[in-house]
Amino acid sequence: MKKHNFYAGPSVLPEYTKQKVAEAALDFAGTGLSVMEVSHRGKEFVAVMDEAIALVKELLNVPEGYSVLFLQGGASLQFLMVPYNLMKAKAAYLNTGAWASKAMKEAQFFGEVVEVASSKDKNFNYIPKSYEVPADVDYLHITTNNTIFGTELKSDPDVPVRLVADMSSDIFSRPIDVAKYDLIYAGAQKNLGPSGATLVIVKDDVLGKTGRQIPTMLDYQIHIKNESMFNTPSTVAVFACLQTLKWLKENGGVAEMEKVNIAKADLLYGELDRNKLFVPTVPAAEDRSRMNVTFVMAPGYEALEKEFLDLATAKGMVGLKGHRSVGGFRASTYNALPLESVQALVDAMKEFEAIH
Ligand code: PMP
After folding, report:
1. Theoretical Cys-Cys bridge with 188: which of 192, 252, 278, 318, CB 3.0 to 4.6 Å?
2. Given 138, 154, 170, 190, the catalytic residue
3. How far, in Å, is the centroid of ligand 1 from the Cα of 49?
4. Residue nearest to atom 9 of ligand 1 (CA)
5. CB of 97 closer than 6 A to ligand 1?
């Protein structure tokens, strides 16, 4: 049976990526060796890293003066590396969910953390709009897409201070103006590849300014100098990311992804707004994520939750259960999820409504 993969991450990847990884698992670049068993210093893997970095720059139109890194430790290690490298004394955070809260917790090891606004009062079902950023902070940190709560900031904000963004779950889903950011990071395991690689895009001249001694592995400047090869990179994950980047380029890049992502989101939210059995958890259309569509059973129909999950499962849909802190459902609709999978989900909702 065809599977419809709605997992939040690790999550659906392009067939192209899976095929190329499967081939390279046995014979990588004509070496007669698996991509798992070659040196990262060999010319074949160095070419993979170089091309992956070049494609990130090309696809996101990264300006001069920025470095692109493939690191490890997930986005969670970036919660720590960002303040270690950028925070002198004080940083501002927009608290839009569990991941933002975790980022704030790590920053507290390095100085004063100012929560400029929080949507916790409504279980993070909106993006706060009016807040002031103190002029004396070292940066403002935002989470562009809140994977658990299904909200997304779909434009690049103008702020008077340095801007840092966790884009783990929406990078490459739309064009972004990298010049507005001083640092962007993302765990690979949503729109890019398997877990194990973490993408960082950093403006070179923001680094080395804290006066703090930074342990080697946590120092962005070390990784820049060593072209993401200070230590052994996550070779297979980076190889897989490169395949997705090639697929992205082949399929029209981030502008084309945005069009398809809008079409998928419109289809799904349209049905959620129409169907009497379901309600989206994010009320304001402008805050609704195009990557993680969260919804619950409508009031009075709560008891049907398991029955709908069973129906969807029987139709090959996986990963629809909502995060435990929100409940209900979450359909993750990353770049590689085809429109037909969203259509299948919408059809299942219609069918379920007809039964009840
Ligand atoms: N930030 C966001 C927005 C996420 O969705 C996640 C994980 N799903 C993380 C951070 C943490 O990422 P990791 O597991 O790679 O540390």
Report:
1. 192
2. 190
3. 23
4. 75
5. no
Q: What is the pTM of this model?
A: 0.98
CA distance 342 to 305: 19
For residue 156, indicate whether it is catalytic: no
Structural domains in the chain, sorted by start: 15-250 (3.40.640.10), 253-355 (3.90.1150.10)
99, 154, 156, 287: which is the annotated catalytic residue? 99
pLDDT above 70: percentage of residues in the chain: 100
Cite the annotated binding site for L-glutamate by residue number: 41
Find out whether 102 and 79 touch, Cβ atoms under 8 Å: yes
Mean pLDDT of all residues in 79-95: 98
How far away, in angstroms, is 276 Cα from ligand 1 center? 33
Q: What is the mean pLDDT of the segment spanning 33-59?
A: 98
Phi-psi region of 196 (alpha: psi -120 to 50; beta: other; left: phi over 0): left
- Can you spell out the DSSP letters for 89-145? SEEEEEE-SHHHHHHHHHHTTTSEEEEEEE-GGGTT-S--------TT-S-EEEESE
ipTM over 0.95: yes
> Under a CB-based contact definition with an 8 Å cutoff, are residues 293 and 150 in contact?
yes
The owner of tokens 């893997």 is 45
3-state class (DSSP) for residue 160 = coil
C-alpha 323/C-alpha 189 separation (Å) is: 17
CB of 187 sitting under 6 A from ligand 1: yes
Q: Is 99 a catalytic residue?
A: yes
- For residue 187, give the ligand 1 atom closest to its CA: 15
Q: Is 205 an annotated catalytic residue?
A: no
The rounded mean pLDDT for the chain is 98
Atom of ligand 1 nearest to the CA of 77: 16
pLDDT at position 259: 98
DSSP of 6-36, one letter per residue? --SSS----HHHHHHHHHHHH-STTSSS-GG
